[in-house]
Amino acid sequence: MSKKKQKRTDSASRMMSGVVQILVEGYIEEDIQSILNPSIKVPGVWSGSGFFVKYKDLEGYIVTNAHVVRNAIKVKISSMLTSEERFDAEVVGLVKQLEPDVALIRLTDKELLRFKKLAIQDIEYLELKEGRSPSRGETIKAIGYPVGMIEPNITGGEITNFISGSEYTTERFVTNAAINPGNSGGPSIDEEGKVVGLNTVVMINAENIGFITPASFVKIIIENLLLLNEPHFADIGGKLQKNAENFNPLLKQAHAKGVIVSKVVPNAFLDAAKIKPRDVILSINKMEFDRHGIVIGKEGLYRHINIYDVIKLVPIGESAEIVFQREGVIHKTKAIAMRNPEKGINSIPILNDRKYLEVFGMIIQPLSFEIIQAIQEVDPAAQLEMLQTIDQDKPALVVTHIYQGTQADEIEWPLGELIVKANNRRIYTLDDLKKIVKKSQSGAVLLECRSGRLGYFLVDKSLENLE
């Protein structure tokens, strides 16, 4: 064996000792019943991978995929350093919407001391790679605990491609290294032993195609969690569209370059930078964009880095410089990187975050993306009505379950109705509805839906202690 090959093998073996298996007890989040009726929770057990991450002087912190611990009740880890012992861990924070699919957990103080006492050697903390991203054809090794193995597994491969991010997604590396269920959350390392990214997902029905979340995005999430308790990226704060030569007369450009701003979100990044619709963004932090929003020059020569990836890698709270064109004139401005203000309709993937009200024989919840998806299985027409509300700034209430033999069942109150008024007053939240119900003791509540359907419900003493 050559010295170079031996060095790579030794590096991978050393890194392997920093990779852990994560064992989880929790709730099955995809179950449609529990989405439509949160009082039903389907228990389950599963496993994934993670690794001790080197970050400043912190000890016992482990990076994994968010989907591994997203609806966990109990989290334990095991390591090849400690035989088959298991150690309690707690979730520090995670990206609930899985974009990117990153979470940070840690051994409790007591369990970290026990781990150190039992370990056959010091914990190997893995370092996230900074600076240059890997190139196509660069060799990597993916480490993890696939299909329930009790010892870490190493598979070799290459970086084969790159997938640009979007308004809602983050960039991913593509690899032909074998990434299987259970590998999720483990590291992919380069020949120097640095973590190039987090093993995230394998493409179903495709051979030898796996995805890796780049280390640069993982680092941003860790910093935002530890410094701001915010597992989010900065967002552009508006809608963008591709430029084209057709727009040259309108925009007073000689050639189509940069991306057109079509909408500015109030109190977000572009608004703070005084950018307006029809302005053309030419660069952010000296990274210039072509008409597709792709970085021009060496950075974008062998992979497509786009404007969304650029803004996401600016830490929240840091200033970003923007060069833009308005009416043919070039301007320069700055703004603090920030996340977009939350919309009325959001994703609520964590089961314990799902608030609901059980009243008049039905379950009423704040509308979420998960509910919209689940309703499709029951009534596609109701789903279409809900989709029309996605961009609104105010939340909405939806009927997600009807109990048999109740008032709601008697009047054939349909699943999926969006409730907009109670006793002729506009309502948006469960608290709005609760207040009206409490004021109507021994009376009745008239509910009105977005479709115009009415429901008249008698209030009894059982609702006196409505929480």
Automatic annotation (TrEMBL):
The keyword Hydrolase applies. GO terms for molecular function: serine-type endopeptidase activity. Keywords: Hydrolase, Protease. One of its GO terms (biological process) is proteolysis. It holds the Pfam family Trypsin_2. Coiled coil: none annotated. PANTHER family: PROTEASE DO-LIKE 10, MITOCHONDRIAL-RELATED, PTHR45980. This is S1-C subfamily serine protease.
